[in-house]
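Cross-check.
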Amino acid sequence: MEIKRLVEDRIRRDLDKKYVFLSGPRQVGKSTVAKHLARRFKSSQVFNWDDLRQQRMIARAEWGREADLVVLDEVHKYRKWRQLLKGIYDTEGARPRILVTGSARLDVFRHGGDSMAGRYFPMTLMPFTLRELAPKNPGETLRQLLRFGGFPEPFLSQSDRAAARWRLSYFERVLREDVRDLSRMTDISGLNLLIESLRETVGSTVNYSNLAADLHTNAMQVKRWVEMLESLYVIFLVRPWHQNVRNAIRKQPKAYFYDTGSVEGKDPEAARLENLTALSLWTRVQYSRTMEGEDDGLHYLRDKQGHEVDFLLTDRRKPKLLIEVKSTRTKIGRGLNYFRERLSVPAVQTVLNLTQPQSVRGIRILPAATFLAQIP
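Predicted model, tokenized:
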């Protein structure tokens, strides 16, 4: 079963103008997208830095200049990759088209290379969301995403055992291979414990001091670990919005996982629903930024009096839409009504087990599947 990804057509168009750097989580489908794109050109060449036979060819730029497309997969592991590509771009231009893929944020690999600013379009490939899958039965597909997560292999397997085996291998490879590529860390036990802690507290704020006490380290070290997991697309952070909100105060970020299927917590279903909603909104923000150039943002709201809303979409830093996530309750959350009145923006409460849309005091109450399939 092949699913065309939302980024493919945009990458195809952008390649006619500049290089494209496609990053994203490990095993999210970047190589598959690259191969799909390669088939859309008359001639293409695909190189992978993990293939020892091809490393020398990449380092010497021994690809055919007559090719319509050159794919450089995982080339960020080469220390001088930016210097190499900058030199080629500046002397030869944007031909042949070059697509670079990597399982970490490509902007964090700056070793030995000059800036590539103005020479490439950044793009991120995200896990499947309900909107991207465009299912005929959104309710059932939502259940599958909550169960297996949105990474292609476990989702398409539709097998709990296969998904569990994939997940174990995934985290082991991230910790033992990707962390090694990004840092000189040899003892990964603390990082592993941090992942386990974050999996159980999705939706809560990240308190570096408390985590440091639990992990027997210091808060600065925990913050560095969190930043590393963010750079490796294990987690993403949703930060508070505070501009022009009376009595609002700065708070720590909340951490969510790219792999919804790995989320646990006291109520796994509710935690996974919140994580999937965060991921779907985050995907929408990232794609609108990279593909449309829009200045969108994703935040949460909380003030001194305890009023809180799960998510706030912003447009050019101004509030656009409030979203509260519930697994069973249809009663409007206190914080949702409070902030809707003060910010004067639309508000939505999504409910997993709701069958029909409702409206209470101007706030829409929607089935979670309906909202996620049609995220604005």
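Residues 117 and 144 are 40 Å apart (CA to CA). The longest helix spans residues 268-292. Passed to J.P. for a second look.
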